Amino acid sequence: MCGIAGYVGQRNAIEIVLDQIERLEYRGYDSTGVAFKSGDSLQIMKRAGKLAHLRAAVEEENPFSEVAIAHSRWATHGAPNDLNAHPHYDATGEVALIHNGIIENYLELKEELTRAGHVFQSETDSEVAAHIIGLEYAEGVPLEEAVRRAVGKFTGAYGFVVISMREPGKIVCARNASPLVVGFGKGENFIASDIPALLPYTRTVAVLDNEMVALVTTEGITAVSPDGRTVKLSPFDVDWDIESAEKGGYEHFMLKEIHEQDDVVRQCLAGRLGQENLTLDGLFGEHVWQDIDRVNIIACGTAYHAGLMGKTLFEKMLRLPTDVYFSSEFRYNDPLLSPKSLAVFVSQSGETADSLAALRLCKERRIRTLGIVNVVGSSIAREVDRVLYTQAGPEISVASTKAYLAQCLVLYLLGLHIAEIKEMPGVNVKAGLKAVREFPEYVKEALDLESSIQDVAKQFANSKLAFFLGRGADANVALEAALKLKEIAYIPTQECPAGEMKHGPLALIEQGTLSVVGATQEDVRDKLVSNIRELQARGSHVLAITTKDDELTPTVVDSCAMIAQTNDWYLNALLSIVPLQLFSYYMALERGCEIDQPRNLAKSVTVE
Ligand code: AGP
Question: What is the reported pTM?
Answer without folding.
Answer: 0.76
